[in-house]
Write a structure and sequence with these properties.
The complex is a heterodimer of chains A (204) and B (188). Chain A has 204 residues and is mainly beta. Chain A has a single domain, classed as E3 ubiquitin-protein ligase SopA (Pectate Lyase C-like). Helices cover 7% and strands 28% of the residues of chain A. Chain A has an 8-stranded parallel beta sheet. The N terminus of chain A is likely disordered. Chain B is α/β, with parallel strands linked by helices and 188 residues long. The mean pLDDT of chain B is 93. A 6-stranded mixed beta sheet of chain B has the order 1-2-3-4-5-8, with helices on one face. A 6-stranded mixed beta sheet of chain B has the order 9-10-11-12-15-16. In chain B, a hairpin with a 5-residue loop joins strand 15 and strand 16. Chain B contains 4 helices and 16 strands. The chains are: A mainly beta (204), B alpha/beta (188). The interface between A and B is medium-sized, with 38 and 32 residues.
Chain lengths: 204, 188
């Protein structure tokens, strides 16, 4: 029987009753790795060695203190992963999934990012400034002390998010959705916020 | 296989192109428009479009067929017999289509339109206008809206949360994110 071709090389973990995504290079998810440190090391080596990374599955993996500047990342899945002190600046993301990730002190400056998902992620002290962030999904994020300044955010969405002490200065906000957000000390100076959709929300 | 995203400013809709890594027969989903950028995407990757899948028959998801069918010999699959005067292979909910080695499963979702289909392939889900990141599709009245929500909850949210969601408008998402964040679909 012909094997069904996969768009994303998604494989469920082989551990009994586990439906989490298996990590690239292993039949098991990150939680069921016998040697998680070795798994992290293998994925980090791949990320550092290659300029172009495609179809990487690294859900729930923890990354820290990495310089990943200038990478081309395509159709990859990092859902629920943890990133601490990781620098993705000047990288190119297409269809990359970071939903429900935790980001602490990470850099995404001068990015070319399209069709990527950060929904439900927690972002603290992260810098997305001077980037093209088009058609990206930031719904339900919790963002503290983050900067999206001088970025083109066309058609991206931040609905149902909690955003505090963050900047969207001099951004293109055309067709950006901020409906039902809870915002505190968020600066939209010099941005075309009239062209964004705010709808219901709470500003404190 | 490779997946490409094309944004149409006319109708602000998403078109998806699926094809093998090294060129060959490709599948297009919801060609809302056909322009030079989409033609470049198809040709520069060595593709020949053999199939078009429509999530529903609205023009913003199908108008590109007018040009595409002049360039490629395309079989059109939809939840209805004809779209813009083009004959279609009518697809019913529950049917599986084997196209270019990919198995697409169709799920019928009423509410936005009577012919709406969601297509799943692998762990990807093409939702058309039934739901998008943080929203559900428009409906002509409150009955249709409730029908749409119930259809999505019973037929889609019961599926594996690992599905990646590619809507007809707006940014991609995941089924898990929609379950937890999309207020129309979450239970809280």
């Amino acid at each position: 029987m012909r094997k069904e071709k996969e768009l994303f090389e998604f494989t469920a973990c082989k551990h009994t009753d586990c439906r989490l995504a298996a990590v690239t290079g292993s039949p098991y998810c990150f939680h069921h790795q016998k040697n998680p440190a070795k798994t992290v090391s293998a994925i980090v080596n791949e990320l550092q060695a290659k300029e172009k990374i495609k179809n990487l599955s690294a859900s729930y993996v923890e990354f820290s203190n990495l310089d990943l500047k200038g990478k081309i990342l395509q159709v990859s899945n990092f859902s629920h992963a943890i990133f601490k002190n990781v620098d993705f600046s000047e990288s190119h993301f297409r269809i990359v999934f970071f939903d429900f990730c935790l980001f602490l002190n990470c850099y995404f400056k001068k990015m070319d990012m399209k069709y990527s998902v950060f929904a439900g992620a927690s972002l603290t002290d992260c810098d997305f400034s001077s980037s093209d962030i088009l058609h990206c999904n930031f719904n339900g994020i919790t963002a503290k002390s983050c900067s999206f300044s001088e970025s083109d955010l066309y058609f991206s969405t931040f609905a149902y998010s909690e955003i505090s002490d963050s900047d969207f200065v001099d951004c293109n906000l055309k067709k950006v959705r901020f409906n039902n957000t809870r915002r505190s000390s968020v600066n939209f100076k010099f941005s075309n916020y009239e062209e964004a959709y705010f709808g219901e929300g709470v500003v404190s | 296989m490779r997946l490409f995203f094309h944004f149409s400013v006319a109708g602000f809709s998403n078109t998806y192109l699926l094809g093998p890594d090294d060129g060959g027969n490709a599948i297009i989903i919801d060609p809302g428009t056909m322009n030079v950028a989409l033609l470049d995407l198809i040709e520069s990757n060595g593709y020949y479009v053999t199939s078009a899948l429509l999530t529903h028959a609205h023009e913003s998801h199908a108008y590109g067929l007018k040009t595409l069918t002049k360039i490629y010999d395309i079989t059109i699959y939809a939840g209805t017999d004809t779209v813009l005067d083009f004959e279609c292979v009518k697809v019913a909910g529950g049917e599986t289509l084997d196209l270019s080695g990919l198995k697409f499963r169709a799920i019928d979702i009423k509410g936005h339109s009577s012919d709406s289909l969601i297509y799943t392939v692998g762990n990807c889900m093409f939702t058309g206008d039934t739901f998008s990141s943080g929203t559900i599709g428009s409906a002509p009245n409150s009955y249709a809206r409730e029908l749409l929500i119930n259809e999505i909850k019973s037929k889609i949210l019961s599926l594996d949360i690992n599905y990646l969601v590619f809507p007809g408008h707006g940014s991609p998402s995941t089924l898990e994110a929609e379950q937890l964040i999309n207020p129309a679909l979450s239970d809280h």
